[in-house]
């Protein structure tokens, strides 16, 4: 089922009294090499063992002690929305325990309430998230709640600055150019129609529709539930309603399609495959296949914060800049380097007492010496 700062104008080592300084990156240089993060599209099974390798694939690429934000939005209409998203959090904490990630639930459930995706306090953690995850629920509800929201603007900015966007099940549909109203058609019996999606890849010139649960077979021999429960016949009629030029990507259950903008590649992982419907042509990519991102269409990287609210973009850039400076490698002072050189000479002359005294001086300055086969190196205490 679907519900299942201060900124340096130039690089400037900050040192005081000989203590370790950090070489800060200026925002101008900092922005030059920024590329969008991964987009992971999972057909189903975000808390199943079959998805574990995909989660680990992402975790290996996150910064040390990375931060993961899980939005409750897709199932925000459910009284137990926190439990739906909470199952994902519990699964990740257990499966990815060796990666020491900080995983947080964000109750951005419904506009016009205290738990709104427009509530700055609720969505604030998105500014420092290294991975943003949305999962099961209702695709049309998710799209309606996130459309023109503060949460969506921050998600756009964070992804543009390198954060991974991980979408599963209903969220895959919601972030498409148009979304398929599965519940409205399959459960309520409304006439076939499309609803506006979040069109997340529109800024990359990729007006794509992603369909999870592509090979679903819950209906057995009595009911065709493929193509996300609608079946082949109804889906083909729906497809005929689309304007020309929109490609459809079907993602099998327990299967992920990973879009890597930095490498310009797509990767298929999991138990099944991915189907691309491009006009009259059908392409199938099986498990472990990789293919050029160009296969999905002629795409481009939008400059800077194009398509993102200016205030959100500025704050996201500032947050990322501060975050990277916090993780920057400390720069030894000239005094510390001189002491290290003197200690090396003392050890070569076998003046052990002098070498130990120099080592103590270095420790007083906040540095420890680590002797390696390539020579001594300084590390901050």
The proportion of residues in beta strands is 15-25%
Termini separation? 52 Å
Largest sheet: 8 strands, mixed
Number of E-type strands: 19
CATH superfamily of the largest domain: Class I glutamine amidotransferase (GATase) domain
Give the % helix.
Answer: 25-40%
The dominant shape is elongated
Radius of gyration based on Cα positions: 25 Å
Number of spatially distinct domains: 2
Spans with pLDDT under 50 lasting ≥5 residues?
Answer: 4-25
> What's the level 1 CATH class of the largest domain?
Alpha Beta
Describe the structure.
With 381 residues, this protein is of the alpha/beta class. It folds into 2 domains: 12-326, 3-Layer(aba) Sandwich (Rossmann fold); 334-380. 31% of the residues lie in helices and 21% in strands. The protein contains 12 helices and 19 strands. The protein has helices at residues 27-32, 52-59, 81-95, 120-123, 139-146, 150-160, 170-174, 182-187, 231-240, 310-326, 334-348, 352-364, and strands at residues 12-13, 21-24, 39-42, 67-71, 102-106, 131-134, 164-168, 178-179, 195-196, 208-211, 247-251, 255-260, 265-270, 274-278, 281-285, 290-292, 330-331, 367-372, 375-380. The strands form 5 sheets. An 8-stranded mixed sheet has the order 5-4-6-7-3-12-13-16. Strands 10-11-14-15 form a 4-stranded mixed sheet, with no helix packed on it. Strands 1-2-17 form a 3-stranded antiparallel sheet, with no helix packed on it. A hairpin with a 2-residue loop joins strand 18 (367-372) and strand 19 (375-380). The longest helix is centred in the C-terminal third of the chain and has 17 residues, at 310-326. It is elongated. Residues 4-25 have low confidence and may be disordered.
